[in-house]
Amino acid sequence: MAGGISIDLDGINAVLKTALDAVIVMDTSGVVRGWNDVAVRHFGIAAADAHGRRMSELIIPLRYREAHEAGLAHFLATGEGPVLDTTIEIQALCADGREIPIELSITYTEHFGEPVFMGFLRDVSARRDAQRTQELLIDELNHRVKNLLGVVSGIAHLTARNAASPREFAETFTGRLAALGRSHELLTSVRWENAPLADLFAALIEPLAGARQQVEVQGEPVELGSRDLITVGMIAYELLTNAIKYGALSQEQGRLSIAWRRDGESLLLTWTERLATEGGTPQRAGFGTRMIDKCARHDLGGSTEWDWSPEGLTFSLRFTPR
Amino acid sequence: MHGCIAWRLQSDKPAGRLPPAPAHGAVDDELPFETPILIVEDEVLIAWTLHDMVVEMGFADVRLARNGAEAVALAADRHPGLLICDVNLGAGDDGVATAARIRATEWAPVLFITGYAGDDIRARIDSAVFGAALLRKPIEPRPLAAQLRAALLAQKPN
Predict the structure, then answer these.
(1) Are the Cβ atoms of B44 and A231 closer than 8 angstroms?
(2) Could you read off the pLDDT of A115-128 as tens digits, one per residue?
(3) In terms of pTM, does the model score above 0.80?
(4) Which residues pair with B3 in a beta bridge?
(5) Cβ–Cβ gap B49/A157 under 8 Å
(6) Which value does ipTM take for this structure?
(7) CA–CA distance from A214 to each of A72, A208, A252, A312 (Å)?
(8) Which residues in A lie closer than 8 A to residue B64 (C-beta atoms)?
(9) CA dihedral A192, A193, A197, A199 (to 10 degrees)
(10) Which of B16, B43, B64 is the closest to A151 by Cβ?
(11) Between chain A and chain B, how many beta carbons pairs sit less than 8 Å apart?
């Protein structure tokens, strides 16, 4: 060793054994002199293979090697080391060629005889992955929010065109938003995966309070993806509003039955209203009806059938879930 | 007083109609209102709103497609003179790919609409669909009218 001073490797190793981070000791000529167990695990390089090799050839990716050697020479010449006594994030090279993100701090010490650099390295892959997932989620959220704003502005525009007064606009608009909100709540509860159709109807019918007893919901277990569920939710809300204003739920003895079943690839949903006393002229082809038809065709690629009889409305929707 | 009169004049206008004046780049009489317009948008309420806005500006031939495949088929049939295309169309080709496919055989200016207009989207649009404009969701009638006007009055390349 230079000047006859040698490194107290036993002393260093006793410390390194207890470290939870990878610790690497490098002498002033750039050669590895210490390599703890965590470093073995992180980089897949045995201590015996690391000792005596140049640091720059071991775990430093090719593109950083020149800078590493230059930095070392600069420090030895001037005593300036911008990467010393601080923490940086950088890529490290493993024996199998993978690069992993690490948090690196380097100190320079003369406590062990010959001066050495001690590098403390922490694998931050998990943290990086979590950050990436979070960024993706934020992008996705941003996209959803923007799209939702587009839908809300569409609802506002279409509701405004068909409202007789500002009061009617406010009532209809907030009702539609509330229905949209309930579909979103349901989807959030299943992390925007598939949600049961029965839960959607339960959520939409819940605010009816006493009138809930007039409604019967039955169908085999069916789950829908988020897009389909939101559209079916909008359709159901329009039907429900119509039933409350003019249909079966406008009479205390009226009955509403909502049923669905699979028919091959497609789903058949039937909405049957039975009035207690025969109503006057039923509401046909209003805005709600057109909205339902457009939603069914455009968003679901499906079809609708309407039968307005004196006993009440029978509506059916057929579509192939995505 | 003035405020009150102005309010009454405003409210006398038919609901939902664009102001007729060409101020702020809105629609005017020079526009070729006979131009067939194709709207490609998967979200029904946005598609419907766009359709209404364009019809209210005075265009008579406005068609809706809900995905890329439908748009390509409709374009081959109707030869649109202008394309309004959502960037994100759910499953299948996205709006940029769809517009590029249509533009391979039909010359039509393209207005893209998107909720999130990052640099990457802009770069993709610029490389795939020459001269396309980009509008952000939610769509407002005035900027839409201004972009339509600019696109329709721009010189066609020879």
Answers:
(1) yes
(2) 999 999 999 999 99
(3) no
(4) none
(5) yes
(6) 0.73
(7) 82, 10, 8, 14
(8) 298
(9) -60
(10) B43
(11) 71
